[in-house]
Design a protein that fits this description.
Blueprint lengths: L5 H63 L5 H14 L8
Helix pairs in contact: 1-2
């Protein structure tokens, strides 16, 4: 490079900088797109989780109502509710 004119050296540096900046910009845009995709998927999964929790709570309430109406014993209702919670990974005990 020492034998090349200054203008040629400058052009090579500018071309390299342009390519480097473009590569970084492309990589950054790809990261942003992946982050947006991940955020949308997380939102979808959270909505699904809330829906499932509401459905589960509905089932647990129905079991409780059945016990209140003497359709099943309170003990059986409690066992069913706790078994369902355990199967679903809901580890908080029922009060």
């Amino acid at each position: 490079m020492p034998d090349q004119p200054a203008e040629t050296i400058k052009r090579h540096l500018e071309d390299g900088s342009t390519h480097t900046v473009q590569s970084l910009t492309d990589a950054g845009e790809e990261c942003v797109q992946q982050e947006c995709t991940a955020a949308r998927e997380e939102k979808r999964l959270r909505q699904e989780q809330y829906s499932l929790r509401a459905a589960i709570e509905g089932v647990l309430d129905e079991v409780g109502y059945m016990a209140d109406d003497d359709q099943i014993t309170a003990k059986v209702a409690g066992e069913l509710r706790q078994s369902l919670r355990a199967a679903l990974g809901l580890d908080t005990p029922l009060s």
